[in-house]
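Let us work through a complete example step by step.
Step 1: write down the sequence.
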Amino acid sequence: MAETKYKTIMLKLSGEALAGKEGFGINAERAVEIARRVKEVQGMGVRVGIVIGAGNLWRGRVGVEKGMDQATADYMGMLATVMNALALMDALEKLEAETRVQSAIEMRAVAEPYIRRRAIRHLDKGRVVIFGGGTGNPFFSTDTAAALRAAEIGAEVLIKATKVDGVYDKDPHVHNDAKKLDKLSYMDALNLRLEVMDSTAVSLCMENGLPILVLNLWDDHALSDAIKGKRVGTLVSEKA
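Step 2: predict the structure and record it as tokens.
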């Protein structure tokens, strides 16, 4: 078994990670690609928690822009995260990775209710735990849910999996001179508005001393290399 830097991680996935080229819906092949990466890390003896967004199925702000009540729009988003969690669970279990889905909004027919001690017990038994339903409250993002659950399960790092290889000082898709930042402090992430995660999530990580690692999920080795302690992506911590 490979030596690892982290024993417990929280992996934050966007809903779009499950979408195909069309950018919406759930693509079974993409789910399997993600599952393979997670299973590889699990096979290294790492306890893995996952929070996934819902942008591939529903964006609450679109509903709000069309006059929908904010809380209603957010609850719809929470339900969509559970759909994504079930899709990812199915992909993981097809690879024989034992998985549990826990939801902050009770729906016992398809997912366990979120209970911290039970989640930790699952992790101790080597199961991947996918946390659906956000925080269970409107007005909070899945970034904040990931930070909260990471703190609750004692994760040593919150890994934000994206389509880029780290955080840049400006949008690299627009600016050719954009510079990648290898390290970043929490305060710089907040003050420079670099959109690492939303400000509530970053603040929660800062208060709990939980580092955030931003990396490219679609790099075949980025996630496993990060677990081994190799320099990957951008690390957000107390000191840059």
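Step 3: interpret the result. Residues 12 and 51 are 5 Å apart (CA to CA).
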